[in-house]
Design a protein that fits this description.
single chain, 333 residues, alpha/beta, Rossmann fold, seven-stranded mixed beta sheet, four-stranded antiparallel beta sheet, 13 helices, globular, ATP binding, ATP-binding
Length: 333
C-alpha cells in the first residue's frame, strides 16, 4: 500500500473488552489496533489462536460492538444506524473457514447464493446474479449447480459456493477467516488462486485472517502480526518475512517450511490471560530474547519487563512494537 493510496477500510484505536460475571477485570480481546486496508490490497492478519484476530475481524464486520475506537470506510466513520449498518454489510462480506457449517444442508446451492440478495432486497434479475457469482467463483456452468445440495459437493466446491454467496452482493471488501484451513492441500492452492484472481478482476480488498504465515507468504501484500490483542509487527510481506523484527514473528515464521534458513523457535507457555496483560512488552514472559539473557546483554531487559510500548501506527512501513534496537517502537504509550 502506498502512503497516499485511499483506504478502503481503517481502524483507529479499536478496543473490544469482555466482562465476565461478577466484578472481575475485563478481558481485553482487542487492545488498541490501528489497521489500514487499501483498495485492491490483500492484508493477512496473523497470530495464534486466542490472540484476538477473529474478534478484530468480527468488529470490523460490525458483528461485534467495540468498546472504544472507530472503524472508517472511505475515510468516514462507520455509522451505527440500522440503515448504515445494512448498507455497510452489503459492501463488506465474510467468508468463513468451515464451508460445511456455513451452508444450510437443506438449502440448494441456488438458495445459498441468493440468500444475501433476498435479505438486501436485490431480487431483480436474481437468477442472473446467482449465475454470475457462481461463475466468478469457478463453478461453471453455474446452472449445473443450482439444484445441488452441499453434501453433493466436494470441500473445495462448498468453499466456492460460500465465496459466491459473498460475491453475489458485489462487495468492495471481503474478510476471509481461515479460508483454506479446512481444505485438503491439493485444493488450498486453487482457492488462494481464486482469491487472487478476484482481486485482479474485481478490484476487491481482502483481509485474510489466519494462523498460517505460509498462507500469508503466498497471498498477501502486507502482513499484520497480532499478539494478545495488539498488532506487534506489520509491513510489506516480502520485507516482513525476509527480515522479521519482532521475536514473536520470528517464532511463528521459524516453523514455515519456506524458511528453512531460520532456526526453529519453540515458545514456552501459553499467551497470558487477557484480563491480566503483563507490564512492559506484553510478549516478554514468553520472549526468547529475554529468556536467553540477550535482552540483559543489550541493556533492554528492564524496558522489556516494565516499559509499555505504543500502539503501532497504521501505515505501509515495516515496524514492530519491540524494545530491540532497530524496531520502530521503543517509547512508552
Amino acid at each position: 500500500m502506498t502512503p497516499d493510496a485511499p483506504a478502503a477500510l481503517e481502524t483507529r484505536g479499536l478496543e473490544v473488552s469482555f466482562r465476565g460475571r461478577g466484578s472481575g477485570a475485563a478481558a481485553r480481546a482487542v487492545d488498541g489496533v490501528d489497521l489500514v486496508l487499501g483498495r485492491g490490497e490483500i492484508v493477512a492478519l496473523v497470530g495464534e489462536s486466542g490472540c484476538g484476530k477473529t474478534t478484530l475481524a468480527r468488529t470490523i464486520l460490525a458483528l461485534q460492538k467495540s468498546t472504544a475506537g472507530d472503524v472508517l470506510v472511505d475515510g468516514e466513520r462507520l455509522g451505527t444506524s440500522s440503515k448504515a449498518l445494512k448498507a455497510y454489510r452489503r459492501r463488506v462480506q465474510l467468508v468463513l473457514q468451515d464451508p460445511t457449517g456455513a451452508l444450510n444442508p437443506r438449502h440448494t446451492v441456488y438458495e445459498a447464493v441468493a440468500e444475501g440478495l433476498r435479505i438486501h432486497g436485490l431480487v431483480e434479475a436474481e437468477e442472473k446474479r446467482v449465475a454470475q457469482a457462481l461463475s466468478l467463483a469457478g463453478l461453471r456452468p453455474p446452472e449445473r449447480f443450482f439444484l445441488r445440495y452441499p453434501h453433493e459437493l466436494s470441500g473445495g466446491q462448498r468453499q466456492r459456493v460460500v465465496i459466491a454467496g459473498a460475491l453475489a452482493l458485489e462487495p468492495d471488501i471481503i474478510v476471509a477467516d481461515e479460508p483454506v484451513s479446512s481444505l485438503d492441500a491439493s485444493v488450498r492452492g486453487e482457492i488462494l488462486a481464486l482469491l487472487l484472481r478476484l482481486r485482479e478482476e474485481l478490484g476487491l480488498s481482502l483481509l485474510v485472517v489466519t494462523h498460517d504465515l505460509g498462507l500469508a507468504w503466498n497471498i498477501a501484500d502486507r502482513v499484520a502480526v497480532m499478539y494478545l490483542g495488539r498488532i506487534v509487527e506489520q509491513g510489506p510481506t516480502e520485507e516482513l518475512l525476509r527480515d522479521p523484527k519482532h521475536p514473536y514473528t520470528r517464532a511463528l515464521l521459524s516453523v514455515v517450511p519456506e524458511t528453512e534458513r531460520l532456526e526453529q523457535v519453540v515458545l514456552t507457555g501459553e499467551p497470558p490471560d487477557p484480563t491480566r496483560i503483563p507490564a512492559g512488552c506484553r510478549f516478554h514472559p514468553r520472549c526468547p530474547v529475554v529468556a536467553s539473557g540477550e535482552a540483559a546483554r543489550l541493556g533492554i531487559e528492564d524496558a522489556c519487563r516494565g516499559t509499555a510500548l505504543p500502539v503501532l501506527p497504521a501505515s505501509g512501513a515495516h515496524a514492530a512494537a519491540c524494545h530491540l534496537p532497530g524496531s520502530a517502537s521503543a517509547a512508552t504509550s
